[in-house]
Write a structure and sequence with these properties.
mainly alpha; 7 strands
């Protein structure tokens, strides 16, 4: 299996096969999500991400993580440690991507206008992640990598070879590596874990139904600048205070937007859109998409 250490006797059994199938399923589902989210993506939407300082911090952090994993993967391949490499890639897909980055950015992907700059950045970063993943796993999951690559967005990648096995590994820009930013975000992720735990406790206590009904009050000894806590905790609102560290959960104030499901003060029925309660952001997006579809017709 892809997780086996071929330098030792290979063990096989029901649990080994289950573990391997779970790892493979995670990798395959990551490809499926990326390809679905990149549907329609082309060079006209792509933005320059070579200088990450121009990007939102979350994208800067993910590009840093991509550079770290890239170094680890290439080192494992050079040493023929393919089992270790597969474990590293699976961990990246499971922890940094699926349960963190993709989860947070779903709102931007599904609810922002197509021409929103931050949405364009997100899709460009996803394209970079997709290309790197395809080349990483090609030595051990040759058919899956080839299948995923065949559905890639066309005209986006510099080395747009017909087969993934005709490509070389992606050259990750040195500018993506940012140790100071990573340390800051590791601190933020620890706080996020505390918030998620408090949200789960609030759900169990029937104080809230979903996280989007919540307004966490986060108290920190030192504030962490540049973090949108409502965004990374996937709540409708969030407030940060300075003091003894704690997290309390309150109900979000406002009405529920029928499009993004957030509870926000600016949500109100939009007469021009059939009276549907929408936030300002979502009302603008719906009006934009309607105008775009009318022009296309």
């Amino acid at each position: 299996t892809i997780l086996s250490n071929y330098s030792e006797d290979i063990r096989i059994g029901a649990q080994t096969l289950k573990t391997t199938s779970d790892v493979y399923r995670r990798l395959r589902n990551t490809f499926r999500y990326l390809l679905g989210a990149l549907e329609g993506f082309d060079s006209s939407e792509s933005v320059d991400i070579s200088n990450p300082k121009d990007l939102p911090e979350l994208e800067q952090y993910i590009l840093h993580e991509l550079s770290v994993v890239d170094t680890q993967v290439k080192d494992c391949i050079a040493k023929y440690e393919f089992g270790k490499m597969a474990t590293i890639v699976h961990g990246f897909c499971n922890s940094q991507l699926s349960s963190f980055y993709f989860d947070i950015r779903k709102d931007r992907l599904y609810c922002d206008r197509d021409d929103n700059q931050d949405r364009r950045v997100y899709r460009t970063v996803m394209a970079a992640v997709f290309e790197a993943l395809c080349t990483w796993v090609a030595p051990v999951l040759s058919f899956t990598a080839e299948d995923a690559w065949s559905y890639r967005p066309r005209g986006v990648f510099k080395d747009d070879a017909d087969s993934i096995h005709l490509k070389t590994f992606v050259k990750i820009p040195a500018s993506w590596h940012n140790k100071a930013l990573a340390e800051k975000w590791q601190h933020a992720l620890a706080v996020r874990d505390d918030v998620l735990k408090a949200l789960e406790e609030a759900r169990n206590a029937k104080l809230i139904g979903s996280a989007l009904e919540a307004h966490p009050i986060i108290t920190l000894k030192n504030n962490i600048p540049g973090i949108d806590w409502a965004e990374i905790c996937i709540t409708s609102q969030a407030t940060v205070k300075v003091g003894e560290p704690s997290v309390t959960i309150e109900k979000a104030e406002g009405q529920k937007c029928e499009r993004c499901w957030k509870i926000l003060p600016d949500v109100k029925p939009r007469a021009e859109l059939g009276g549907v309660p929408l936030s300002d952001r979502d009302a603008d997006a719906v009006a934009w998409y309607l105008k775009k579809s009318q022009k296309a017709a």
